[in-house]
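Lab notebook, bench 4. Still working through the backlog of constructs that have no structural model yet. Next entry is a single chain of 128 residues. Request: give me the structure tokens for it.
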Amino acid sequence: QFVESGGGLVQAGGSLRLSCVASGFTFVDYAIGWFRQAPGKEREGVSSISASGDMTEYADSVKGRFTISRDNAKNTLFLQMDNLKPEDTAVYYCATDKFSEDGVWYTGLRATNFMKVWGQGTPVTVSS
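Model written out:
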């Protein structure tokens, strides 16, 4: 399972750093992704990072503003979010399919259907 933290209320242009601590499986073996769900919208992939941490992917909407990273020694995933916009408002989740090592497809369509482990989410609200 995952436990996310770090969400909150921030003004547009501000920053937040999300964390996600994993337990119950071998974190170092799998790609991990950040997903988000805005009110009234489908859950979507935001970013992913490979098991080793050497490959990352970002949705076009967050490229250049968000940075994903992981600390395999601490079973922890991070998402640094800078220059936040009101459209970033959502509940943010971490997840893995517990199969892939690279996770490059996590930001693609319907990727959420294949995730096997989810956290409870942390809410992010960006005010204008």
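Notes after review: The chain is about 0% helix and 45% strand. The CA atoms of residues 8 and 36 lie 14 Å apart. Flag for follow-up if needed.
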